[in-house]
Amino acid sequence: MGLLESRSVSDNGTRILVVEDEPTIARAVTDRLRAEGFGVEIAGDGPSAVERARAFEPHLIVLDVMLPGFDGLEVCRRVQAERPVPVLMLTARDDETDLIVGLGVGADDYVTKPFSMRELVARIRAVLRRVDRPRVDAAADPAAGGPVRLGELEVDQRARKVRRDGREVHLTPIEFDLLTCLMRNQGTVLTRAVLLEQVWDWADASGTRVVDSHVKALRRKLGQGLIRTVHGVGYSLEVSP
Fold it and tell me: Does 3.40.50.2300 match the CATH number of domain 4-132?
């Protein structure tokens, strides 16, 4: 089954699954994450990654694209179909096609190889902060976060579920956060830089492809007319009365 190691005890209760078939990289990433207080398990191929994600129930997956068995894109598809979980992809610097496809199948963010451990940890913490933010907001204001109607959509912010014409629509964690960000600013055009800051916690505008790919995924799942593109500016949520 490839490289596989189990050590799930963590100082902060956060579990991370590292999926990487290169032992040197896997060990370096794992050692650093454990030093940061995370509980970590390792998988070294596609099939074992899906198996460990099911058993370990990680809070986040660090996922290499190139894997034996089947690749990281297929791992992401299968994992997200079972249980939405944030995914940080590791890609080669010039693999733009893999990046776009990866974001389309549910990855939240990406880091290009070679990368520094400081950058990787910073991206992981940013994703975890974003995922935890709705729970913090709900605790601060228990009256907030109830179901909201958007035309044919019903968005339950507390349960993090979306229904379209009464049927639940599967959204990845980042897709749900992007939708709720647009909801909070309904009718206002948000630039890609603003969306990167508010949804991804990115301080720069270097990830515009990330925004575009996730908007495309939302349109595919929720309908083409919900999110309006303002060319050269950004996106706006538009709901017909």
Answer: yes
